[in-house]
């Protein structure tokens, strides 16, 4: 069947802000969908609240709405735009749930909107636990014995009397399994079960037999309307059942299954998708008993997902693209495989390599968060590595996750005794694979490790190979053969040199192989490569055969998504590539993140899926011999390569390594500011705790501590006392001595302001000034940011422009620079200068209409701002106000403190755009998930002394709105003293009723809580905030955020009073 | 060092792969020592190496696995598709000397040694595959002794031909496989049969008598079959002139016939169709096939170097019922003769997808209808 005749205008729903469990993979999917639909001549209306995405670029769709992803907003947009269809399966769980709500309410029928690719019956059969079980039983597919319950007593009864412990709790309709977990005992079931019931929007959990230790296998299946089915890829989790697949190290294809097991599960997956009737892509997860053919279906996702993004990148089969063609009427045998150009989408990819996915966890930022992995996903991102050998791919993956590791040796494990290492094998956490490695090194045998971890012996044996190779390298001559073996297993030359103490006999250059979906059966044209060690370098051949005579530029990507370095940098990388191609250059990307648009093989002229380390990058440089390289769009990951590239004599386009250093080296930066006469907070440096304490005392507390060369305020704190400084220095030096000093600054709690500027060496352009709602002290990434500034005087803005120009000139910035200022007691200070792209670039590009990355890229190629028709200085602001609101993933990170500070904690952001500040802020807050109407009737305050005056102001506003104000002793006394009638409530560690029990009553809508020191989960204030978050109560830790929210409530805004803004009309 | 024993597999004996065009690849020996000559082909299946090794259709061939990790789950006693390994040599990238699977009885290396098969690993199998793709199927040799006289070996390689393939792999006496709940009697011609064809029939209530390839109408007549099944097998179909003549006789009856792979090709030749050699064949578990009548596409297992020329199936023979979605080549024929159909691919799978087992059901239906006529 070709394109359906009844489809002309399609609404595509995105997945909203990046949160744990829902990340860049949906931008990748959305991007493919929008491109595909428009290729088919359809009109596309896009809604997504996330401004950092590529899919919300003006050119991606005919209408682009960056609006809150909630039902009433979608209704407004549907009424306004009148699409005839809606594609619900591309925007993750968020998009799917919204579309189903609209369908079930009858709204879609009423508006004559068709659902493409799935219908509510299908979705319910996959997502409602009971219907899912019934569906599987109906087609004879095995399920794990389980029961759906809606109260805790039934859960306990089922576990006690039917299946026994341990059991797994899975809440219905939650994202990434939020609120679930394994319960070893009755007591644990009480706690986890109750939490799960609360988190489920329909108060429903599944209690099931625990099959932890079974193999976890996934299949990506495609189906069209003719009932044709194929499986794109199988995947096997190294971590057996029990760890969320998003937190598992995953291998593609499945490697430990014989054909009979493989086909058994493949056939089951196809039966399931046929029964569900999904038209598009579907993910099926299985548990397979390692000792028999017994298996059970764990979960089915009837939509594109993180796994489908991984499967697409692992095979070269573009699942989202094919799924969208299916949704609009095509069948699999009508869709060309764009990789081969000869075959069709109805074949199954054959791999001739092996792929390893490795998660990136945020525990380096949340040092106190519980690292245990279970059914709740905790990773913020992931990397993928491709190799000819499993060991090679695993080593590449470990290098790509940016833990500073070249091998599987985790330094901190060296300190443990053999017994401690063995004991640590029992911990199912983010470090387990490294513990396994260490255990082999300590001589613990494979069977012991297997008994404890249940990781398949195949994987253990392979990991052991790496240990043997280390020993082998350290022993005897480094022969050519031994060297080749080490390279096959993924060792770097630098490691080989270090372990053997010898130079490689004959250096083996990396040979690149093509990812072609067909294991070389057909000639393919995919410019998608990975490195291995062989005679034939296909990338070299490809470059020769496709010689264009154009200059070649390599763009280095930003690696895995993590807090502080997110999807924004992928946006920048992709725009840079597009600008390079437009300007007549060949654009080449090196990156290792399977979730992103930049690693879609038809974005750049060539894609190298490789770790972003100096030695891995060398292979690409040798093959490509580029004219230039660009590092300023790939975040700190790419910036870190600057020195290496400079040493190699690579032409780095943009700000020089020396100037980057001048911005990051404390002393050089101080000199520069002195020279310009620009004030900065007084600061010092220190390598050790003793010096740090001395310097901090000299500056006077509070002080700001941070390491040099960081992004996202990694490991940054405000220290109020000597104890804070000592604790901090302890954490920061835990992996050994520092290479660069810790910076210690006087902390100024002023108004924070941020700008991005494009500079050509002579002129500079500031698209817009962004003013933060929160004062300094809250990381800029965690602040609500407003464009254009709402409270700054013209003279301050003039000064910002002046300073920005001076800094750009003095630092010889070519391309982008991001500068953060603080206005404190009427003096403007510079806090930070980053000569690279920043996380605000995507949204400010969209709201100002200044294509920042494109301009910067063209400047790197020799253009000037004047030449491109831009004046110097600040671009006048337009008619719209844009408010960026951060979004956090705290519910998923057990024990992580939600108190905001100088270290970034948010995982994503949304944007509110409207013609006035109140409306924009209202939309921003709604989009970020804040409930802006009264549900309960209490706002609870418990704040530190310094915050009490501001808290009083805020409390009065909440009271005016009709809330009762509850407060703990100190805060309550202060409020009463200042004429506010607050109710006293005991703290969590005081007798009940207290702040613990009141959260269970459902009366509390907001908690406003700060403490002098947070972080440590043993502290009462942290526990109280955690409890509030677990109860889904909005918890604010900045008086400024609370004030903005209170103002927003008082402004009386409703959805009726705001506009739906198509940003193509701005 | 103590660990060297563990790494010994990487220090194995050298072996060489020599192609008819003179290309020499150096690798390591796997399985038996010695020299073997055959037709070098590749298969893209990612699982099912034991089924591949024991598939008689590979007779005379040296098989390259494009998937680099082979031997992961060891070898067992259940998965073989025939009594022994038929292929003449095995080329892989890496073999797993520490397999992991609950059914595993020994390693791939041991299995090849026991079956006296010369193999080679640590070969850039992708480069080799590309070569075969570009130049077409090519003869080659694997040897564990570097030839003193390369020209002599090359001469032997170039002169190698697969002959008497079917005769070599077929049983020489009938074998009976009863069903638990028998409804039909099927005669299954063994041209190089995969066991799962018999199992697939047994499962559907057919008592199966496997007969030698050269059985005639007279030989089978006394078995009073409800249906005749023509198996897969190796080699050039046109070489089997006597078998084709026998088939012509059998077709004069009205017994339902179902043919697979070589059986499909022989059937076409017996009815006036033609066969030809593909450049490098279809071997793997991911070949898409369109069933014209159903308007559906199925993923199939395939292993063939020859095909039935589409245009040679004239209306008086029948019609092309299936074709390959990639290259359009004929994948099945529905004959004018009632209750007669054949397919090029392997509905019995093993290894590979089970998506076309409905064809066995169709055969059963044909027998049932024919019986009731």
Features:
heterodimer, A: 1066 residues, Rossmann fold, Dna Ligase, domain 1, D-amino Acid Aminotransferase, Chain A, domain 1, 9-stranded mixed beta sheet, B: 373 residues, alpha/beta, Glucose Oxidase, domain 1, 10 helices
CATH architecture of the largest domain in chain B, by name, is 3-Layer(aba) Sandwich
How many distinct beta strands of chain B? 19
Query: Which runs of chain A of at least 5 residues are low in confidence (pLDDT < 50)?
Result: none
The 3D shape of chain B can be described as globular
Helix/strand-derived class of chain B?
alpha/beta
CATH-derived topology of the largest domain in chain B: Rossmann fold
**Into which percent range does the helicity of residues of chain B fall?**
10-25%
The number of helical runs of chain A is: 35
Count of structural domains of chain B: 2
Task: Give a short synopsis of this structure.
The complex is a heterodimer of chains A (1066) and B (373). Chain A is an alpha/beta fold and 1066 residues long.
List the helices and strands and how they pair.
The complex is a heterodimer of chains A (1066) and B (373).
Chain A: E1 9-13, H1 25-39, E2 43-47, E3 63-65, H2 71-81, E4 85-87, H3 92-104, H4 107-110, E5 114-115, H5 120-127, H6 129-138, E6 146-149, H7 152-163, E7 167-171, E8 181-183, H8 186-199, E9 205-209, E10 215-223, E11 229-237, E12 250-252, H9 259-276, E13 280-288, E14 295-301, H10 306-315, H11 319-327, E15 354-360, E16 381-387, H12 390-400, H13 418-424, H14 432-441, H15 446-453, H16 457-473, H17 480-488, H18 493-500, E17 511-514, E18 528-532, H19 538-545, E19 552-556, H20 567-582, E20 586-591, E21 606-609, H21 614-624, E22 628-630, H22 635-639, H23 642-647, H24 657-664, H25 666-676, E23 683-686, H26 689-699, E24 703-707, E25 717-719, H27 722-732, E26 742-746, E27 751-760, E28 764-766, E29 769-775, E30 785-787, H28 794-810, E31 814-824, E32 827-834, H29 841-848, H30 852-860, E33 873-874, E34 881-887, E35 908-914, H31 917-927, E36 938-942, H32 948-960, E37 964-967, H33 969-977, E38 983-984, E39 1004-1009, H34 1020-1030, E40 1034-1036, H35 1039-1051
Parallel strand pairs in A: 1-2, 1-4, 2-3, 4-5, 18-21, 19-20, 19-22, 20-21, 28-33, 36-37, 36-39, 37-38, 39-40
Antiparallel strand pairs in A: 6-9, 7-8, 7-9, 10-11, 10-13, 11-12, 12-15, 13-14, 15-16, 17-18, 23-26, 24-25, 24-26, 27-28, 27-29, 27-31, 29-30, 30-34, 31-32, 34-35
Chain B: E1 14-19, E2 24-31, E3 35-43, H1 49-53, E4 61-65, E5 69-70, E6 89-91, E7 94-95, H2 108-114, E8 118-121, H3 125-135, E9 138-143, H4 150-159, H5 165-169, E10 175-177, E11 184-190, H6 195-203, E12 206-212, H7 217-221, E13 227-230, H8 241-250, E14 257-260, H9 262-270, E15 275-291, E16 296-308, E17 318-324, E18 330-335, E19 340-343, H10 358-372
Parallel strand pairs in B: 3-4, 4-6, 5-7, 6-8, 11-12, 11-13, 13-14, 14-19
Antiparallel strand pairs in B: 1-2, 1-9, 2-8, 3-9, 10-12, 15-16, 15-17, 17-18, 18-19
């Amino acid at each position: 069947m070709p394109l359906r005749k009844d489809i002309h205008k399609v609404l595509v729903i995105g997945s909203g802000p990046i949160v744990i469990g829902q990340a860049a993979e949906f931008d990748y999917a959305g991007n493919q969908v929008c491109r595909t639909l428009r290729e088919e001549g359809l009109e596309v209306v896009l809604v997504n609240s996330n401004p950092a995405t590529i899919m919300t670029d003006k050119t991606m769709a005919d209408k682009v709405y960056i609006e809150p992803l909630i039902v009433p907003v979608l209704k407004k947009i549907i009424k306004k735009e009148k699409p005839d269809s809606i594609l619900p399966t591309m925007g993750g769980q968020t998009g799917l749930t919204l579309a189903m709500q609209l369908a079930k309410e009858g709204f879609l029928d009423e508006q004559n909107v068709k659902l493409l690719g799935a219908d509510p019956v299908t979705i319910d059969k996959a997502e409602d636990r009971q219907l899912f079980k019934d569906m599987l039983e109906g087609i004879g597919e095995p399920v794990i014995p389980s029961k759906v319950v809606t109260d805790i007593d039934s859960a306990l009864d089922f576990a006690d009397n039917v299946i026994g412990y341990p059991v797994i709790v899975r809440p219905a309709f939650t994202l990434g399994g939020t609120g679930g977990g394994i319960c070893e005992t009755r007591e644990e079931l009480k706690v986890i079960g109750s939490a799960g019931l609360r988190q489920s929007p329909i108060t429903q959990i599944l209690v099931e037999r625990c099959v932890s230790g079974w193999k976890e296998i996934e299949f990506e299946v495609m189906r069209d309307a003719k009932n044709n089915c194929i499986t794109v890829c199988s995947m096997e989790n190294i971590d057996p059942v029990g760890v969320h697949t998003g937190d598992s190290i995953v291998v593609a294809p499945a490697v430990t299954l014989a054909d009979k097991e493989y086909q058994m599960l493949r056939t089951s997956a196809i039966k399931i998708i046929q029964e569900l009737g999904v038209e598009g892509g579907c993910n099926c997860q299985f548990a397979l008993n390692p000792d028999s053919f017994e298996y059970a279906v764990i979960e089915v996702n009837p939509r594109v997902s993180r796994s489908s993004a991984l499967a697409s990148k692992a095979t070269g089969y573009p699942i989202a693209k094919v799924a969208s063609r299916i949704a609009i009427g095509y069948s699999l045998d009508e869709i060309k495989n764009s990789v081969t150009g000869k075959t069709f989408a109805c074949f199954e990819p054959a791999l001739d390599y092996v792929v390893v996915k490795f998660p990136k966890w945020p525990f380096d930022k949340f040092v106190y968060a519980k690292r245990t992995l279970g059914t709740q996903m905790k990773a913020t991102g992931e990397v993928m590595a491709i190799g000819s050998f499993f060991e090679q791919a695993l080593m590449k993956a470990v290098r790509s996750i940016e833990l500073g590791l070249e091998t599987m040796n985790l330094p901190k494990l060296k300190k443990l005794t053999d017994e401690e290492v063995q004991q640590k094998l029992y911990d199912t956490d983010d470090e387990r694979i490294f513990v396994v490695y260490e255990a082999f090194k300590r001589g613990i045998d494979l069977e012991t490790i297997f008994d404890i971890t249940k990781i398949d012996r195949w994987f253990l044996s392979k990991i052991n190979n790496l240990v043997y190779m280390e020993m082998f390298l350290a022993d005897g001559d480094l022969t050519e053969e031994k060297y080749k073996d080490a390279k096959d297993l993924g060792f770097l030359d630098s490691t080989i040199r270090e372990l053997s103490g010898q130079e490689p006999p004959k250096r083996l250059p990396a040979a690149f192989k093509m990812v072609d979906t067909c294991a070389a059966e057909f000639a393919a044209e995919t410019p998608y490569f990975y490195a291995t060690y062989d005679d034939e370098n296909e990338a070299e051949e490809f470059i020769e055969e496709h010689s264009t005579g154009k200059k070649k530029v390599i763009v280095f990507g930003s690696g895995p998504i993590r807090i502080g370095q997110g999807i924004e940098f992928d946006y920048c990388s992709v725009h840079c590539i597009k600008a390079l191609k437009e300007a007549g250059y060949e654009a080449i990307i090196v990156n290792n993140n399977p979730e992103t648009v930049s690693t879609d093989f038809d974005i750049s002229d060539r894609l190298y899926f490789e770790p972003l380390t100096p030695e891995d990058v060398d292979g690409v440089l040798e093959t490509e011999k580029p004219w230039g390289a660009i590092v300023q769009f790939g975040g700190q990951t790419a910036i870190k390569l600057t020195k290496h590239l400079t040493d190699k004599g690579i032409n780095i386009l943009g700000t020089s390594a020396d100037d980057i250093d001048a911005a990051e080296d404390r002393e050089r930066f101080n000199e520069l500011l002195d020279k310009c006469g620009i004030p900065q907070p007084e600061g010092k440096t220190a390598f050790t705790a003793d010096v740090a304490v001395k310097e901090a005392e000299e500056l006077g507390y509070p002080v700001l501590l941070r390491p040099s060369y960081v992004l996202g305020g990694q490991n940054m704190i405000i220290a109020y006392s000597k104890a804070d400084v000592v604790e901090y220095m302890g954490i920061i030096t835990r992996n050994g001595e520092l290479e660069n000093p810790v910076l210690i600054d006087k902390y100024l709690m002023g108004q924070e302001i941020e700008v991005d500027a494009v500079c050509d060496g002579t002129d500079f352009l500031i698209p817009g000034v962004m003013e933060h709602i929160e004062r300094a002290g809250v990381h800029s990434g965690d602040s609500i940011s407003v464009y254009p500034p709402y409270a700054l005087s013209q003279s301050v803005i003039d000064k910002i422009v002046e300073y920005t120009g001076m800094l750009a000139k003095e630092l010889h910035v070519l391309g982008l620079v991001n500068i953060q200022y603080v206005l404190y007691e009427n003096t403007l200070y510079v806090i930070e200068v980053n000569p690279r792209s920043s996380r605000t670039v995507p949204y400010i590009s969209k709201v100002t209409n200044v294509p920042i990355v494109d301009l910067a890229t063209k400047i790197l190629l020799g253009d000037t701002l004047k030449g491109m028709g831009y004046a110097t200085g600040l671009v006048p602001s337009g008619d719209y106000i844009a408010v960026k609101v951060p979004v956090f993933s705290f519910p998923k990170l057990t024990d992580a403190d939600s108190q905001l500070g100088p270290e970034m904690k948010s995982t994503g952001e949304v944007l509110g755009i409207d013609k006035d500040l109140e409306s924009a802020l209202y939309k921003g807050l709604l989009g970020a998930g804040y409930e802006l109407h009264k549900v309960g009737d209490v706002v609870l305050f418990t704040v530190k002394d310094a915050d009490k005056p501001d808290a009083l102001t805020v409390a009065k506003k909440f009271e005016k709105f009709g809330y009762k104000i509850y407060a703990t002793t100190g805060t309550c006394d202060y409020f009463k003293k200042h004429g506010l009638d607050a109710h006293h409530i005991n703290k969590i560690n005081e007798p009940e009723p207290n702040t613990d029990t009141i959260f269970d009553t459902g009366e509390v809508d907001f908690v406003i809580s700060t403490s002098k020191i947070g972080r440590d989960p043993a502290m009462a204030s942290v526990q109280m905030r955690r409890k509030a978050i677990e109860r889904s109560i909005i918890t604010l830790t900045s008086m400024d955020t609370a004030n903005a929210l209170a103002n927003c409530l008082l402004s009386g805004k409703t959805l009726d009073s705001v506009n739906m803004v198509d940003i193509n009309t701005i | 060092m103590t660990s060297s024993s563990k790494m010994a597999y990487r220090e194995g004996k050298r072996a060489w792969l020599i192609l008819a065009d003179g290309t020499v690849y150096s690798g390591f020996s796997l399985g038996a020592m010695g020299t073997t000559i055959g037709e070098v082909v590749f298969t893209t299946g990612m699982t099912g190496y034991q089924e591949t090794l024991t598939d008689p259709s590979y007779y005379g061939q040296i098989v390259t696995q494009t998937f680099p990790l082979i031997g992961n789950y060891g070898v067992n006693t259940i998965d073989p598709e025939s009594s022994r390994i038929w292929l003449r040599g095995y080329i892989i990238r890496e073999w797993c000397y520490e397999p992991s699977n609950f059914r595993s009885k020994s390693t791939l290396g041991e299995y090849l040694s026991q079956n006296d098969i010369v193999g080679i690993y640590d070969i850039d199998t992708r480069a080799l595959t590309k070569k075969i793709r570009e130049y077409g199927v090519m003869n080659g040799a694997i040897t564990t002794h570097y030839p003193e006289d390369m020209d002599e070996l090359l001469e032997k390689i170039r002169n190698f031909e697969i002959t008497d393939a079917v005769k070599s792999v077929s049983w020489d006496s009938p074998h009976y496989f009863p069903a638990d709940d028998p409804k039909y009697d099927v005669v299954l011609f063994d041209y190089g049969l995969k066991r799962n064809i018999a199992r697939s029939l047994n499962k559907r209530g057919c008592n199966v008598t496997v007969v030698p390839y050269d059985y005639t109408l007279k030989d089978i007549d006394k078995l009073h079959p409800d249906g005749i099944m023509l198996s897969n097998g190796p080699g050039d179909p046109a070489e089997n002139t006597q078998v084709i003549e026998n088939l012509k006789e059998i077709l004069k009856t009205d017994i339902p016939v179902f043919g697979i792979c070589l059986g499909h090709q022989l059937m076409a030749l017996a009815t006036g169709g033609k066969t030809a050699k593909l450049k490098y064949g279809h071997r793997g578990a991911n070949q898409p096939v369109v069933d014209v009548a159903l308007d559906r596409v199925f993923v199939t297992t395939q292993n063939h170097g020859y095909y039935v020329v589409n245009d040679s199936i004239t209306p008086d023979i029948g019609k092309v019922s299936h074709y390959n979605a990639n290259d359009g080549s004929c994948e099945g024929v529905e004959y004018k003769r009632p209750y007669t159909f054949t397919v090029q691919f392997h509905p019995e799978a093993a290894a590979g997808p089970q998506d076309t087992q409905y064809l066995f059901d169709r055969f059963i239906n044909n027998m049932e209808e024919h019986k009731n006529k």
